[in-house]
Amino acid sequence: MGIIGLPIAIYGYFAIPDQPTSSKARWLPPSQKQMAIDRMEVCRRRPVKRLTLKKLKDIFTSWPLYFFCAIFIAHVLGIRIYSYFNVWLKSTKKWSTSEVNLIPTAGYGAQIFFTLTYAWTSDAIGMRWPVIIAACVPALTGCIILSVWPAHNTPAMIAGWILTFLETGAGALIITWINEICSESAEHRIVIIGVVEAIAFTFQAWVPLFIYDTGKAPHFPIGYQMAAMFFAIEVVLTLCVWQVHKRWPLKVENEVEAD
């Protein structure tokens, strides 16, 4: 897997233009660099400054770091359930090996369509939180179907599994929301997004081992209920962030750097 990622990393080093104010991309003409800078100013996205101890203190005492860590942990632990669709199919002993590999592609296809739909819709309405909640609803519904366990109703079970795929696109909206809430401080955006993703995927590395016991497939004793809980928590925390941001918007003190 590292061999596959290596050429992409090398390509990214030269292809990704970095910050508009500090970009050294030779393929980007000056007019387009200025256009990017102008767009950043319209969105009040300030350029990256030196990361000081005072700035770090501001970041780690600000509410977005902790709320978004909690939301993203719930998100990644919730969507983890759909990766066990193949395990369920195989354990029922109703499907051939080719069918076990083929059937989940319906979920991945729906995932792509809904991810694009969430992005277009959130951009159209200029808000992230309603679409994040809307994305959680079908996945939560799918987990409820699986929790009820209509084992005799195979179409219902497959529908429940496919619905769990549909929340994945909310992850990109959460990251976008962080960028918007912390728009006035590039340091807040960089550090918070880094910490949020690192902590969330650390949880994803070990929590599923306890809640999705593959040895007890096709009926995971607490897996379906836990996934439903994670999506429900994501909905509640999204509403909390929406209200907290309305009442206590993030205020960033700009430090004056010495020449």
From TrEMBL:
InterPro entries noted in UniProt: MFS, MFS_trans_sf
Record's keyword annotation contains Transmembrane helix: yes
Subcellular location: Membrane
Record's bilayer topology term: Multi-pass membrane protein
Residue stretches spanning the membrane: 63-82, 102-120, 132-152, 158-178, 190-211, 223-242
Organism: Paraconiothyrium brasiliense
Gene3D superfamilies membership: MFS general substrate transporter like domains (1.20.1250.20)
Keywords on record: Membrane, Transmembrane, Transmembrane helix, Transport
Record lineage: Eukaryota, Fungi, Dikarya, Ascomycota, Pezizomycotina
Principal localisation: membrane
Keyword Transmembrane helix: yes
The protein's name in its UniProt record: MFS transporter
